[in-house]
Every structure is written in structure tokens, then in C-alpha cells.
Write a structure and sequence with these properties.
Blueprint (H helix, E strand, L loop, with lengths): L2 H25 L12 H49 L5 H29 L4 H15 L6 H27 L6 H16 L10 H24 L12 H6 L6
Helix pairs in contact: 1-7, 2-5, 2-6, 2-7, 3-4, 4-5, 6-7
Length: about 250
């Protein structure tokens, strides 16, 4: 089931529940009931709770968006470092250079086509990916430079391997959900309270009031979906992509 279908169902369900309860509740109200008699303190409390919950939602969205951005940046840094390894190995003999580039391409191919799905399913890096990166590291560190030109390129290559390892570690940390369970509990309870307060205002079955009630509940459902989608930087519809790896290392896209 696609994420957009989930969003559509969630928003439709939120609207349906709120409108159904509103209609049923309105039928139980007597003809002599006056909705204008709602105490001012209830309207004030409803407004304050709505404002506080809106701030919490905004902070939650900012937090998960920052996590997604950091995850995407880690992929870009990893891709750039791998590209530098392939490019800087040009000064090495053909046999060594080809081995380094082949192992870099093998690593990138595995990350894009296999490890990416592993991160989405398990929220962690795979052991095989670590082994392939270790092979790249051995290709670089085991070679003994034979000329001054090769010696000048050796340390920068080692530094780039370390940069790949560091970016990979950050990518692994970003594979996990960024929102703790207790925060989700608060967001869901807050949504129920915010929507539930609609009924304290004694809204009627006029088209305008029903439309506003439906849009309000649908908006909250959409924002919660947005947080849920961003909460898995590598696993859902608006997740980070592997495009930097494929753009900088096109030989590994097969």
C-alpha cells in the first residue's frame, strides 16, 4: 500500500469520524439548546490547547525534517568521498587503480540495491556493506607507494576512506526512527484532545461548520502523516535518496 493511499485513507477516516459524531451528537441535542451559551472559558481553553498543540506539531515536523536532511547530507558526503577515492587512485598503477575502482563500484552497487532496503526494513546497516568498505580500505592502505607522486596521493586517499566510513556511520544512525515512542504517544493523545474539543463548542450541522470540522481533523491527520513519513529517513515515500551515489559513481548503477 503506497504512502499516498495511506494518507488519503487517514484523512478520509478522520473526516468521517468527526462528521459522524457531530451529526449523531447534534440529533441528541434538544431544540431549546442554545450553542451561543458556551462558556467563554471553554472557548479560551480550546483556543489555547489548539495553539499549544500546533506548536508541538511544528516542532515535531522540524525535528523529523532535520533528521531527513542530515541523512541525505550523509549520503552526499559518502558519495563525494567515494568519488574522490576513484579519482585520486588515477596516479596508481593500472592494476591497483582498477582494483580500487572495481571495489568502490561493488560497494556502491550493494549499498544502492541491497543495503538501502535493509536500512528501511531493519533500521541499521548491513554486515556485508561493512565488509565491502573494509575491502576498499585494504585496497588503499595495503599498497606501498613507489614514487613521490604516489606517496603524495596516499594519505589523501586514506583520509577519504575515513570520510566514507564516517559518513556511513552517520547514515546508519539516520536509518533509525528519530521520534521516540513517548513523543508519538503525546502527539496522538494531543490530536484526540484537539479534535475532541470541537464538540465542546456545540457546533451545528450547518454546511460551514461541518466543512470546518472536517478540514480541521483532516489537517491534523495530514500533519501526523507527514511526521510519520519523515520519521524514517530511508524507508518511506519522502525519504532520502541514493541519487548522489549514482550521480557521482555512474559505473555502479547497473
Amino acid at each position: 500500500m503506497s504512502e499516498w493511499l495511506v494518507l488519503s485513507i487517514a484523512m478520509a477516516a478522520a473526516c468521517a469520524v468527526v462528521l459522524t459524531i457531530t451529526v449523531i451528537n447534534n440529533r441528541r441535542v434538544g431544540d431549546d439548546d442554545d450553542p451561543s451559551q458556551t462558556p467563554d472559558v471553554i472557548e479560551y481553553m480550546t483556543m489555547m490547547i489548539g495553539v499549544v498543540y500546533a506548536i508541538v506539531l511544528g516542532l515535531a515536523i522540524a525535528g523529523v525534517w532535520e533528521g531527513r536532511s542530515a541523512a541525505q547530507e550523509s549520503v552526499r558526503q559518502e558519495a563525494q568521498a567515494l568519488h574522490e577515492i576513484s579519482a585520486r587512485s588515477e596516479v596508481y598503477p593500472a592494476e591497483v587503480r582498477d582494483r580500487i575502482r572495481d571495489d568502490v563500484d561493488t560497494y556502491v552497487t550493494y549499498v544502492v540495491h541491497t543495503e538501502w532496503r535493509h536500512m528501511a526494513d531493519h533500521g541499521s546497516l548491513s554486515e556485508r556493506g561493512t565488509e565491502l568498505l573494509d575491502q576498499v580500505r585494504r585496497d588503499v592502505t595495503d599498497y606501498v607507494p613507489k614514487t613521490d607522486h604516489e606517496g603524495q596521493a596516499y594519505q589523501p586517499l586514506v583520509d577519504q576512506v575515513a570520510a566514507v566510513d564516517d559518513a556511513r556511520s552517520v547514515r546508519g544512525q539516520g536509518a533509525e526512527a528519530t521520534m521516540p515512542g513517548v513523543v508519538w504517544f503525546g502527539l496522538i493523545i494531543g490530536a484526540l484532545v484537539a479534535v475532541g474539543l470541537i464538540f465542546t463548542l456545540q457546533i451545528r450541522r450547518t454546511p460551514r461548520e461541518l466543512l470546518l470540522a472536517g478540514l480541521y481533523s483532516a489537517l491534523i491527520a495530514f500533519l501526523l502523516f507527514l511526521i510519520w513519513d519523515f520519521d524514517a529517513p530511508f524507508g518511506r515515500g519522502l525519504s532520502a535518496t541514493a541519487s548522489p551515489l549514482l550521480d557521482l559513481l555512474p559505473n555502479a548503477s547497473g
